[in-house]
Amino acid sequence: MRKLDFDPARMERISIYKIVAGAVVPRPIGLISTAAADGHFNVAPFSFFNVLSSDPPYLAVSMSKHVPDGRPKDTLRNILDTGEFVANIVSEDLAKAQDACSEDYPPEIDEFQVSGLTPAPSVRIGAPTVLESRVNFECRLFQAIPLPKSTSTLVLGEVVHMRVAEEVMDASGRVNLAKLAPVGRIVGNAYCHTRDVFTLQHDAFDILAKGK
Asked: Which of 46, 120, 134, 154 can pair with 145 through a Cys bridge, CB separation 3.0 to 4.6 Å?
């Protein structure tokens, strides 16, 4: 196998993105909903997103600045102002709506209205949840870390409440992947389904259950 070598310090940003975002795939999509200090709602998708811990649950989402003006995105500003956000999971039926939320709208525009999604009250925080999303993670900001030499800020949130559609849960307490039908982010305009799966003879859930 012949490999090519790349030095990020000597590359243009778009070239780095093509390799990093094209190789670290598929990435889950966090549809992040927030409320501004003045009450305006905001919802936007982020694919640099994942879970960090389950006990207690922490989520992470990385948010870059606007290009080319370099101002913070509305989502980050709202999180820093209020200390709250909701990470909503994107299923197949929400793919187009979440994409509509990704446009660069001015702060006064409510992406809920643009996309046709419905804001719903959260249980523990003031930021709205996305009603149509089958799983909502209500989070309080733990830490926001500006990444050195980067235009991105890493947001760490502690999950303080979880809402899961009843039909998505199976009898064992697991999330039924087929019924959740999440989509993954690839690169460019590409997304993926999560229908084609395989299993190996290892079950981390059983290990966790024994240690509860």
From this structure: 154
Q: Say which CATH number the domain at 97 has.
A: 2.30.110.10
**Which domain does 148 fall in, by range?**
13-190
Question: Does residue 81 sit within a domain?
Answer: yes
How many distinct structural domains can be found in the chain? 1
Is 199 inside a domain boundary?
no
**Distance between CA atoms of residues 56 and 53, nearest Å:** 6
Residue 37 buriedness (CB in 10 A; 0-12 / 13-18 / 19+): exposed
Q: pTM score, two decimals? A: 0.93
Per-residue pLDDT of the chain (212 residues; tens, 9 = 90+): 999 999 999 999 899 999 999 999 999 999 999 999 999 999 999 999 999 999 999 999 999 887 667 778 899 999 999 999 999 999 999 999 999 999 888 888 889 999 999 999 999 999 999 999 999 999 999 999 999 999 999 999 999 999 999 999 999 999 999 999 999 999 889 999 999 988 888 766 666 666 66
Buried b (16+ CB within 10 A) or exposed e, 22-35: eeeebbbbbbbbbb
Residue 199 has a CB neighbour count (10 Å cut-off) of: 6
Does 2 fall in a domain?
no
Closest CA to 150 of 50, 55, 63: 63
